[in-house]
Structure formats: structure tokens, C-alpha cells
Records
---
Amino acid sequence: MKRLILSALFALFWISLSLAAGHQYALGVDGLACPFCAYGIEKRLSAIEGVEKVEIDIAKGRAVVTLREGASLSEAAARQAVKEAGFTLGSFARLPEEQ
Amino acid sequence: MMHRCYPALLHTAIGLLGTLSAASGAPLTFNTALPVGKGEFVFREQFVFIKSGDDPGPADREVEVLGAVSVLGYGINENLALFGVLPYLDKELEVTPDGERITRETNGIGDFTVFGRYTVFRDDAPGRTFRIAPFAGLKTPTGEDDERDRFGRLPPPIQLGSGSWDPFAGVVVTYQTLAFQIDAQASYEITTEANDFEFGDVARIDGSLQYRLWPRELGGGVPGFLYGIVEANLVYQDESEIDGIEDPDSGGLTLFLTPGLQYVTRRWIVEGGVQVPVVQDLNGEALENDFVVRAGFRFNF
């Protein structure tokens, strides 16, 4: 019984975290082809107000940006950040909300 | 003529200690056109061991140099990056001038080099980039150039610095994909006179291939890459001048080949290789290079 309660609490914790997180955006980063370059992109994107997390997938040339609740990300801001890191924004899309 | 015939490439900005870049994925022995992002710092430390011997003259000269070359790069914006290069050097010369073997040595900070690099062309696509970036800089005389020992003043190539202000310029081209990277560079350094001595100007052409050995297949995230490296450096140095007169036992052409390995992660790089002179067409009794060992690390912040 104790185990069941703990599992339920853990599940509730994760659900609350998911609900608290804001929107996610997928950014195609053209020119990204080595791991050391990825840090510069992370750094510039993380400096945008409202950005909570940046995850890069180098094989896909993609950065997934997670925002804090209530924050938003414009394509212009993303383009500028990627440009300042020395790369080119190839695509910009808001990801569907997690169910 | 104790000032003659030593490996003068030690004292040029684009020579053996030269324009190492701190940028992403740079080759072991020269620069790259890959970016240093705006506001980003990259630090590189490279340990260098240079051995020169195989003296064609009767003095049986041998020179060993141990260096720690520190490079700091900073991105002013997405196209312009500034680099500072400061070597710490430990130099030792063994020579038999008059039948007796003697050792002359010194150590300390060498000549500081500063240069800027500007990306003039960039073609980015998913998983690859092509860039062209000219660069220009100046080697400054921060190293001691009047070191003496009980035999008198050390020969200019054994001094920590040249005493001269030497400008240089070049262009580097980089093509990088997820599987490999090719860099090519052409550069020229104009050396100037100091203490009635002038090292010869240096022209060099460099090429580098970095091939991803591991992981063979890319998964998600940002995995570390292990690259195998092969680099080539074709270096021509003009003759040195002593009191305005060319030294016939200095300068010449050297082709180095450098096999190496580089492990690249998101925040740091470790790398190493051995620079082997495969062709040395040097003037007169100029001292040949035996090999150069390079190993180091980089990190960004």
C-alpha cells in the first residue's frame, strides 16, 4: 500500500512538472556539424528570456527549446540567437503540447 | 657564428608555435574558419615538444624546445573573433663549437601574438557548413631577446623572443560535415629586424582532414566525436639576415605530415599528434627538424 501511494505521488509530481512547463519549439540549425559548436547555440538560446531548457540533437541539426510557463519565443529572437552563435536558422516550429 | 643555423621557425607567428586557433574543431597545427559565437570564450592549451638535430655541420647541434602555448579566443560577433596566443618556452641547445660539448638554455614567456579572423563567406545547410575567413595579426616582442649565459649572448633562435614586431595575414577555408572536416589555409608573415638580426619571412600552406572514427552511427543528443586527423604543412622560410647580410645557412622548405587524434565533446576537446618532416630542403647547414609532438585540450565558456 505504501508503495502504491509513493508511486501515485511520484506520478502526480511528474504530471505537475509537465503542466508547469511552457511551450516547446523545434529549431532547425543549419551549419551545425560538430559537438563543440553545439554549446554556443545552447548558450545563445538559453540567454533568451523565458527559455528554460535547450536540448540539441546534432544528427538532426535540431534544437528543442522549452519555455517557462507563460513565456513565448518569436522566430526573430530564435533567428538572432542562432545567428549570433555563428549558424543559420533553417526552420522554426512550435511543437504540439504533450498529452 | 653562434647565431646561425638554428630552427628559426620557432620565432615566427605562423611557424611552429604560430596561429593556433581556439575555435571549434580546429586542426592541430593551424587555424579554422569555424565560428566562435558572440560573447563566447574558447581557451586552448597546447603542449609542444620540438626536437631538431641531424646537424649537417661539424658543430653537432641539437635543439630541444618544450612549450606550453596558451590561446584565448573571443567572439566579438558571429563573424569576427579575436585570438591571443602566449607561449611559455623552455629551450635547450647542445653544441660542440671547439671540441667541447656545451649546453645553453633558457626558459620563460615568449612572444605574444594577437590576431583577428573575420568570416566573409558562409554557406550553411543541415549537417554541413562551408566558410571562408581571412585573418591578420601581429607578433609582439614580449619575450626576452637579450638572454645571456657564461658564453655570452644566446643566439637569436634560442632567445625567448625575437625582439621584432612581425605582421602576418592569411585566409582559412573550412568545409565541415557530420562525418568529416577539411581545413585549408594560406598565410604569410613579414618579419622585421631587431638587434641587427632578422628572421626570414615565412609563407605556408596547410591542409587538414578530420574524419569521424567514432561513433560510427549517430544517435540523439550531442555525443562525443573521436576524429582521426591527417594534416600537412608546407612551410617556406626566407634566409635570415645578420647586419643586413643574408645567412646562407638559414631558411628553406619543409613539408610536415601530422597524424593525430582528437576527441571532441560539447564543452571540451583533447587532442594530440606528431608532426613529422617528410621533406626538408633547407639552405646550407640550416638545422633540420626531427619531429614535433603536440598534445593539448580546449574548452569553451
Note: The longest strand of chain A covers residues 21-30.
---
Amino acid sequence: MEEILLNKSGGKIILLGNETIVRGALEAGVNFVSTYPGTPASEIGDTFFKIAKKVGVYFEYSTNEKVALEAGIGASFSGLKTLVAMKNFGLNVCLDSLFPLTYTGTKGPMVIVVADDPSCYSSAQSEENSRGLVLATHIPTLEPSDPQECKDFTKLAFQISEKFKIPVMIRTTTRVAHQKMPVKLGKITFPGNVVGKFVKDPKKFVTLPPRVLEMKKELLTKIEKIKEFSEKSKTNFVDGKTSRPIGIITSGISYLYVREALKELNLNLPVLKLGFFYPLPEEKIKDFIKGLKKVLIVEELEPYLEKEVERLAKEANCKLKVVGKQLIPEVGELKPEIVTLALAKFTNAKYSILNTKYQIPFPKRFPQLCLGCPYWLVISAIKKAVDLKKVIFGGEIGCYMLFGNSPINLQDYLSCMGSSVGIAHGIKKATGQKIITFVGDSSFFHAGIPALINTVFNKSNPLIIILENRTTAMTGHQPHPGAPVIPNGIKIEEIVRACGVKNLKAIDPINQKEFIATIKEFLNKKETSVIIVQRPCIWIKK
Amino acid sequence: MDKKMKKFNILIVGTGGQGQITLLQILSATALSEGYDIKTSELHGLSQRGGSVEVHIRFGKKIFSPLIPQGQADLIIGLEMQECLKACYYANPKTNFLINKHIVPIPLEKILPEKEILNNLKKVSKNIFLIPAAEICQEKLGTSVVAGVYLISLSSFKNLIPIKPTSLFEAIKKIIPEKYLELNLKTFNLASNSEAVK
């Protein structure tokens, strides 16, 4: 039995933030889980993948985050307890389905976990802060600081969703998702394989005007009620007291750095720690700032809390000095020493970091394609087949984004999943220049197919190279529709042909001669051409 | 152990695939069995593909941050020598460095001479223990993959870390899968006989 399933109420085991989200969902009695893998959220799906059958939970790796959310919506509309997990960029992909979901609300309780990645440790395309999308979609959102809170907040999120019939988001960041600590366990009841039932209720599930505007009013009323809940919630609390009229407001991982900093500086200041990001407990915040002269807002990335506190201060304490991004950087993750320095400046305390006088240079080591990776064969063929200066190379998300590193240098643009093909079409139409664009197999299923169809339909002729390594390699070798656990996946070749591509060849790149000749030939075609490079990742079990 | 702060900070650095996360699991299981609060931090995903990988393990009476603050590592375990230079961000003059005498070349960069690395490290701390762990394990056990387990075992036997070898032994048994357990327990015993650190 996996340790995560240990049914010893009150016992303590060491778990990763992502694992405690799984544990919290199990303790809440989750029935249905869907995800698309993405660091730093992957272990949520991967853990369910291992245990789902054992515990009677339905689990799937969906084709992308949008269909993962839609699968979850269907399950919730049918009354099941549902969890959907993704990384921040996944939230963008599923946004179209999330907006109407907060309007219709849920039937079975539903929790959506979204993991942000400040400092972009495993995120190429942007340092996205999901909080902006929380405000846009009105989804109630909790922000845990550590694995214990990940578990407790997940359970609470299910309760809130059940009570108010609305999806609830858990927003984590890398240092929460990939943090470990001893976690106190609760009881798992193992509900077994529950079959849902969809009961027709068009008034609830159909967002058609003019009903949709009524729904918006109902949503805003719901949010007001959840705000009252948030005001009373113990997840928003004040610790520390002082005679000085200064305080700190913080949440998520930043709270842990604040506590570390207070200890380091030997300070005792009141800290308002917020478990709710949306809706905020506004009265609690107003109470907290009422007697203060200045307050420090400690948050990573954009100043969402800071702006809210400034707004509330106008009502509660118009002389209050609100300090945030003035001392706390907006780019990159926070670290304990960054918060300690900011807090020292804020309180005029003395603080110097022990070791800043040593400037030790060190060589930088970047991630590399593995030795034996089939992509090396792609690189060598391309370098032999074309004049690199005269061809544009399109990249996107997957191990092949390492094509951008020296000495490979086969990447002239890089954006989100599936985008390399869409952008290649645009460049072709705009310039007519020669272009080779790469898309991985999991990416192709995720968001590449509409772009391929567009290329054929609107008639341009990039050379699209689909890298079929039969796994979602970069995020931990999860299966995808072309390479599911049970063999006989959906064949990419058949999809490409059905999209109307005439110049199509599937090649094992070990056959360099044929591969090079095909690149040369296809690059001069007047219509869209596709080469499917078929050779499995060295790490997948055959 | 920092008496005033009542906590101990371990940083393990190396390159992707050297088993940092397993070492983190063993050390945190050991600390839990000795009744400490624990916080750790690790990174997953792309950075593991041959890039620099560092993990943080902190234990003591009450731990908040999963990241070690700059300059506050008590022990830095280096599974690769060049990576130790990067780890200096977390070191201070009292920090102990326990280093595997092993270099993984960086593509397109010239390999730094061992002496240059050590001289640079000595600017920060004099407490540097360079151990040919990979070589010892290769010679005595036939594989260098357990060099990390050798080093953490050594750190316990030589009091570079305030946890008992017996607790560490139990944690290895708990964390390492059956298939590799014998090899790892042999590694532990090999470290117990080492004269490398006095």
C-alpha cells in the first residue's frame, strides 16, 4: 500500500505539497480527477494515476487542460466530487470553459488546482500570475503556504464548493507544490466507484441570453456570501502583537518567509495571513489596518493584494502608508533573505547577510537533451539538410525547446504549446521565407491540430516536423492519446492525412539519408508538408 | 546546529540525476524519526535534465521557510565539485562542505581544475572535506551511484550532521526500494569504516 493511502487518522508522514492535495482530495471523498501534466503541478495527476484504481477514483490524463476542465464540469454536473489539476498556462487554455462555469456553478463539488511558477523554473513562456484570471472569472481561491495547508485547504475548498455550488481554486506556487513537511493525516473513507446522474436542469446549466445576465447577478450575490464565509474563516488569521503601529499582510509561501524574517530580525509584529485570495475578507483587513501607521504587503509577482489594501485603506484608514512593490520585487520568486531585507528596511532594523562579501564565480550548467535522445538525430539531419542561415526554426514547449541552447541554436521563436505551427503559418503568409517548425506528439494533440488544419485550409507551406517520442517526456513521461498505457493509441499519421496534408512521411530518424532527403524535398513544396519523426524517448519502457 | 535558532540547514547540490531527491527523503525521514519539524524544497521537471539541481533540507524545533536563507547552510553536500561554487551563496565561514571528488563536465565550458575550485571555496569556509566517494563506492561496491548515500552516512558518523547513524540506517531501510536496499546498506557500512573525516 502506498504511504499516501495510510489510513491512520492523526498520524504524521512526510509529503510533498502536491501529494497532500491528493491526500486532501481523498479525505474529502473525491470521485473524479482529470489533468494535463505540467510542472509544478504534475505530481497531483501522477499520484492519482498510481492509486486511482485502488481507491475507486476515476482518473484521466486529458488531451489538454481545456478538455480536462470540461471532463470535470461534466462530472460535477452529474453530481460527482471532482478535482482538476494543471499548471498556470493550463488555466489560459481552459479559460473559455471556466468563465461560464462560475456562472452556471457546480452540482457535485469541484476543486481546480492551479500551480504558478515564479522565477520560471519549469516554465518557458511567461512568469504568469494566475491571480489576474481569478479576478476575471470570479472563482473563489485559496492560497496555501505549506503541504499541511495544501491538504487542509483542499478539503475546505470541497466544502465551500459543496455549500455555495461554485468551483473553488487552490492556487499554489513551485515552492509550495514542491515543499515537503510532516503532515497530519485525517481519515479516508474510500467512497468506491460512484456513478453520477445527470438530471436535466436547463435553468442551471444553459448559459443562453438573457438567462446569462441573471446568472452573472447570481454569481456576484454568491461571491458576497462567500465573502462573509471568508470573514469568519480561520484560514485568514492574525498572529503576533506589538505596541508599534506597523504590520504585515501576506499569504502563500511569502508568509513562511515573513515568519523566518521576523525571527531573523528578532521582531514581533502583527501579521495578517490570508488563506483566501478571492473573495478577500475585507472587514478583517480593515480591522487589521485600522490602528496602523504603515503596513508592508509581502506577495510574489504583481501587486494584487497591495492594490486591494490601498483601496480598503481609503475607507478604513486614509492616512495608512501601504508599502509593497517599493520594497518587494515584482519579477522572480521571493526568498527568505529578500523578505528579511525588505522587512529590515521597512522597520529600520539592522540586517546584513553573512556572506555577501564573497563573489565566487561559477560556471552555469543548463539542462541538456539526454545522451541517446532521439532528438539528436533530428538536429544532425537538419544541420546537414539545410542552410541554417536561410531557414527559420519554430519552437515550442517540450524537451525540444532545448534546441534553443548553444551549440544547437535551432530556435528562432518560442511561445506556448501548439503555437509553433500557427506562428509558422503566419510567418509564411507574411514573408514567404523558408521555415521548419517543431511540435512534439503530446503538444500536437494538445493544441497543434487546429493550427495544422488552418495551415492546410488557408494554404501555406511550412515544413512541420512532429517529434513522436511516444510520451510526454519533459513533465515526467506521462501517457498521451498517441501513446496510452494500453497500446494502439491514436495514430498521428492518420490525423495528419485526414487534415488534408499531401506531403507526409513518417521516418525513423536513424535513417539519416532518407530523413535528410525528405527535409530537402519537402522544404521546396508549394503545399503544407509534415514529417513525423518516430523514435521513442530513451526513458520509456518498451 | 545553530543553538539560538535551533535549526539545522543542509543543502545538497549536484547535477540532474545524481539522486538528490532520494537523499532528501532519507534525511527528512531521519529527522522526523528524531522528533524534529522539517521543511524541504526541491525542483522537478526540465531542470532535472542534466542541469544544476539543488535541494534544501531544514530541520529543528520549528521550521517555516522551505528555502535556506542566503549564508545560512550548516552543511553543504556537493555531489559534483563545480556545483559547490554555486552553493557558496548559501555558505558562511562555519559551513561544512562535504564534497564528492567528482566532476561532470559542462558542454562548451572548460573544466575547472580541482585546485581552483577548492581555493575559491576556501575563501568562504575552511571546513572543506573532499572525499573520493564515487571512487570508493566504485571500487568497493562496483558502482558510484551510491556516492550520495555514502556521503550522508559519513556526515552522520563524523558528526557533521546532528542525527544518529542508527536513525539514518532505519531511514535508509524505509525509503530505499527493496531491490536496491542491500547495496545502500552496504554503502552505509562502508561509510562507518571510513577514515576520511576525523
Note: The two ends of chain A are 26 Å apart (CA to CA).
---
Amino acid sequence: MLFNSFIFFIFLAVVWLAYLLLSNRRGRAIFLLAASYFFYAYWDWRFTSLLAISTIIDFTVGTRMERTEDYRKRKRLLLVSCIANLSILGTFKYFNFFLDTAQAALGALGLNIASLHLHILLPVGISFYTLKTLSYTIDVYRRKLKPTHSIVDYALFVAFFPNLVAGPIDRAGNMLPQIASLKTPDRKKIKEGLVLITLGLFKKVLIGDAAARIVNNIFGQPELYRSPEMLAGLILFSIQIYADFSGYSNIARGVAKLFGVELMKNFEQPYLSRSFSEFWRRWHISLSTWIWDYLFNPLISAILRRMGRWKLSSVQQEMRIAYPCAAIVTMLLCGLWHGAGFTFIVWGGLHGLFLSVERLVVYHNKAIPMRKRIHGFSGFSRFLIGWASTQLLVGFAWLFFRAENLGQVWQFLSKFLHWQGSELTGRFIAIVLTFWIMIMILELAEYLNRSELYLLRLHPAATAAVCAAVIIVVFLYLATNKPMPFLYFQF
Amino acid sequence: MKPGNILKGFLAFVITLIILELFLRWSGTSSAAFVIDDDNLGRVLRPNTNIILVNEGFFMGRVNRGGYLGPYYPEEKPSQTVRIALIGDSFVAGLQLFGRYHFRTIMEQSLKDSLSDSVQVLNFGYGGFNLERMFIYYKLSVLQFHPDYVLFFIGTDDFIEGERQLGPNLKVEDGKLTIESSFRNTGAYRITKKLRVLRDTAFYSLLKKAREFYRAGEILKIIFDKVYLLFNPPHNAAEADSASMVDPDRMALGRSILSELANETKTAIIFVVKNRLNDTIRNDIQNAHLTILDPKNDLDDLRTKNINPYYWPATSQSGHWNYFAHKAIGLYLASEMEKLIKADRAQIKPKSQK
């Protein structure tokens, strides 16, 4: 069930009204769990079993970990959780990729083996709920979190439908206490929820989907397009992915608010970032913080521990080696998490490289500050150079993210290198500018108001009117165009 | 609610709609109307209008100042120029791909390469045109461009009663065809003209599309998704034989049009089979001593190469001719037209008539 479909809003209306009618907390939790499983089964009921298996394993691991103080036993239990979750993810998401790669490598060596490629469907949202369940067991293992004793609460934490299929990847520490006291949302929360849903639909449907229709055509048959058209396709994709995913996150957070649950913010004006490190603090925040906590930090600590034996003269020197190693490995894994393909791995590797170069060369191995106030002309120039170079390279990396394969990346790059003009350049510039200006208006409105709920600062009648106008146009668009799935569903 | 609040709400609503209208229009999400209601021709393409359409394919182009698609050629034909006019429905309009891949461009270029004279191919395609509308458009507009050859793209569907549009009609009086323009005096036409400003908005385009979807029964499918399919499973009924759906009145009118076209002396009339053409109609055309060109073999050649001429891989949708089909049709028509033009020049036959 897509958030940008009518059937979802019918489902939401029914579930929400029933939820409000239930007064008992446990009844509400059971009902929301059933609704969440229905929501998931709507795609393919068979995959609910994977969700249930993952839930049962991690709930059991969590409660058993609590019962024992034995460090080794706790570690074994954590291993069980990691192996179980990663095996399911590996089988359904990466099996064919590794198999095909191995087959190609063997083929290059002259060894031809029969194809073992399996026809496996990728369960929607598997990467997201796997990270959610893993964070739970790791936090329990690290004693940062007390495990829940209610299987219903835990199952609802994993399967809560607003953030089940594409995040935000909320931690148990944030969600479980809210699930344990499922409240009736107050008027403020409902208003905030509705505004977030409206903004999300606007971004997803009118910006993301509209851009996607052009992007899909250009990336679908790039051989038919000329250099400026392909460049426009790439820029539109960078707008599409942001509008699509941040729109989805807004709807998810808005829907959760209607049930009194606060989900974490996933985006904070990433396209205003002036460094890569800032970009990753503002882009897909729930994933970047997950990676920071469970991948990058343990990795850099492990590298530094090992480097302690080398007895380098200073921590600065140690960091000069440890940071790029940890950043590149982490980002390569981040790329692989996004998709089983070399294009995603290169995308991750590029970001790892950008982060490392930025840290070591531009900022001379010092921590990179968040956005500072701009003072004077030199400050503005610095901002402009930082912003433009960051956005340019982020945009370039999106080419790898969107391309079907590395061959298509080369097709784009060779068209950029051997520039061929188009009679439609002016039209494409106008389209790209329109989308870009709209995205920038939304980014700046959020930045200047320091809140994504800037619409609530208007007069209540005006807020309602703006939302109504947007909803009318969005629904009209949805009624005449097949809803497009969210980009991140494929991950 | 206080009147002040109502006013604030109303203003916010209107301003938001205006901003959305501009965004929809400039981003190409929903084009403003690219048609106008002409007092003589009925609904036709609006001259000097940019169009962006994303359907099974992706079109970005412009209606030229002459009110047709492709490059503009003035009404007066230069000497030593062969001018070919294409008339047909959405298959000919080709609003699914860039002009450079349209069969018109391929055909024109190919003919320019093979003939020493300059060649101009004009695309008068318009979505929804049937044989009656094509004939009226030919008489009232295309002839003003002095074409040497006019290619009518037809299929069996042109002989099926379709949706009536506000425009001129053909009437058979005493065995003669006359164009009747009483539509101008209807209330519906006057209202349509008055509401032109609203009709020219991107917002109206969305509304119109929604109405078309509703009429086609698509809206319920979109709204209720799998739940709708649960209660209305898609049935794989065998494709109805379009020959049996042919409207007898349309057939009679079609025959009158054919005999009228057969009497044309200044312009050579050629029929091109758009998709399927039933045998009765085919025989009627041949009996009227008019040329038929059928690119079926060339499209079948594509199929033998595992290319479906109606399938668009980028959007995984089926619909109008795709890039491969346009190329095949363009080359086929160029080769056939080259033969006809050379034969006409050699005075072997009077202008392409059998």
C-alpha cells in the first residue's frame, strides 16, 4: 500500500477512527499491530512471515540477554540475532548479486558454471526493519536499553506501519516508551500530523513523481537523448530522490503523529549543506546516525586500538589513517545497503572518498563544524564555494545511484565529455529551474523558520486553506496518474 | 467564523492555487491546454504553443505558428518543392517522442537525401481524429498548404462511432458531401468559448483528464486498487473483432468520403494503414482507385527481432508506435513515396492513382 495512493488514505481513515474509539492501551497496540501486518500483507502476504520470524528471534534474544550476566553468553546471543537477521537480508537481497558476481569472475577465468540465479522477490522494507531489529539487540547487548517484556509492543515497534517500509529507522529507545503508553493524540499533534502529511504529499507527488516521469524516460533509454537533456535528467533525479524520500518521511511522521507517536526527523535541508560531513548529518538522518553508532564508531575505535601498537606520535597522526579507512569502509557498506549492485557500491565509495578528502585536505583533520552564521562578503563567498562544490559532487554521485549499471554511467559520462547540443536545451533549463526553485523555497522556508511545520505559523484559516488547495491538486494528480512507488522501497 | 478569517482563508486558497498552477505549468507536470476552439475547424491545435507530455513516452515540442506539429512551412509552397501532408490521429501526431525521432522527420530526411528536389513533410495529426474529422480538416485547412500528396492514416477504428466533439460535421445531401457548421450556434460551444481562460489552465487539464478517466471507468480502479480487482477481476475476453463493431452509418459516410477523395485532381490521396484495417474497408479504398500503403510487413519485421512496436521499455507501457516503429514507418513511407514521386514525374501514371 503506497502512501501516495487513495487506498492508503481509506485504510488510514478506517484505522485511525477505530484507534480513537479504542480506549484500552493494550487493545490499541494489538489493533495497530494487526493493521500494520495488514498494511504489509497488502503487498505480498507471504513476506509477513519474514517480519514475524525476525520479530520473534530478536524479542527472544532481547529477553534472554536480560536474564544473563555472562558476557560470552550475551555475545553469543547477539551473534544469533546478527546472523539470523543478516542471513534473511543476505538471502533475499544479496544472494543473486554475489552469485552473479562470482559467476562472472569465474567466467573471466575461463570456468563456466551453470547459472544458480534464483528468482527471489525482494521483500519491501527488509533493509529498514532489519536495521531496526539489529539496533534493538545491539542496544540491549550494550545495556543502553532495557528489553521490553511485551511481544506485542516489540512486534509493533518493528512493524509500525508508518515507518515499516522505508523508515525513519527509529530506535527502540525512542519508540518503545511511546508504544508502551499509546495515547490519544491531542489537537496540536493532529494539526501537526495533517500539515506534515500535506507537505509530504506535495513533495512526493507534485515534485518527486512529476520529476520521476521525465527522469525514468531519460534513464530508461539514454541513447535517445542528447547531452543537455541527460544533464537535466541527472539534476532532476537529484531533486526527485530528495522530494520522494523526504516527502515519504514527512508523511510517515505525520501519520505516526495521528496515533500520538513521534518519529525521528529524517531530513534537515540537506541541499543547503556546505560540506559532505554536513550533508550526511542532514540527509537520511535516521540511517546516518545508525551507521555512525553501529558501524563507523565501532570501526574507528577498532582501527585506533590496533594502531595503538604502532606507537605513532600523536592522535592526529592516528586519525589521519583511521578516519579515511573507517569512512570509506562504512560508506561502501552504506552503498551496499542501498542496493545489491556495483553502482551503489561505487556511490558509497565516492561519498567515503569525499568525506575523507574533505576532512584531511580541506579541514586539515579537524572536526567539521555545522552550519555557521555567514559574516561579510568573504563568509558568503566561502559559503557559496562550499555549497556549490558539495552539491556538484553530491549530484555527480547520484549518477551512480540512479544508473542501471556501470555501462550506463559511462554512457552518461561520454555524452557529457562529447557534448552534443539540443534544440530543447532552453525548455529543459526552464523545467529544471522550476523544480529547483520550488525545492529551494521549501528548504529555505524550513531553514528560516527552524521548523518543518512552518505552515502552522500562518493564520489557522490560511493554514487550512493552503493544505486544502494542495490536497485538492495532489488528489487530482493522483486520480489521473498511476501512483509511483517510493524510490527507497526498493532498498 | 469571522468574515475576516473567511477572507484570509479564501485569499490563501487562491494564492496557493495560483502558485501550484504556475508550478504545474512551468515544470511540465500538467501542460496548459494546447488546443483551441476554432469557429470553422472546431477543436484544433493552438498555434505557437509549447507542449510537454509524459505518457507511455516523453514528448517535448511545439505547435508551430501554422497550427500543426513540426517545423513551420508557410502556406505558399516554393517552386521545385514536393510537399507531403500527413493527416491522422494520435499515431500521426506522435506526442510520445521527440520530433527528431518522429517518422515525419525520418521520412523527410530520407526523401531529401534520395530526391534532388526539396521535400517538405507537414504533420497535421491530431489526437482523436477519425476519417470524417480528417476529411473536414483536409478540406478546410490542409489544402491551403498546397500539398502534392496527402497521406491519410486510417484504421478500422475510424469507422466506429466515437465521442462527438464540438466541431463541424459532414452531411450527405443529394449524394454530395457538405460540411455543416451549426456547432457554432450551440450553447455548449458558446459556454466553452466563454470559459476559455479557465480551460487554458494546467489545473483544468488535470480536471479534464480526471473526467476522461472517470468516463473510461479508470477512476475506481485507481481509488480502490487491489480491492477493486478483488470484486472486478480482469477478464481476458478474446479481442473483439473490430469489423463487427463498425458502425453502418460511419461506413456509408466513409464510402462517400472515399469517392469524394477519389475525384481529387490537384492532390494525390494516399491511404496509410495505421494499425488494422478490415477487408471491407480495404476493398472500398481499392475500388475507389486510391493507393494504400501498409507498413505491416516492416512492423512485423520488428516483431521477428523481438521488438514490440507498441511497447515502450522506459515506462514498461504499451500504447502508440515506439521509436523503433517510427523509424521503420518513416523509412518505409520514404521508400514508397520515392517510388510514387518518381513514377508521377515520369508520367507513368497520373498522380499516384491506380
Note: Chain B touches chain A through 46 residues (CB under 8 Å).
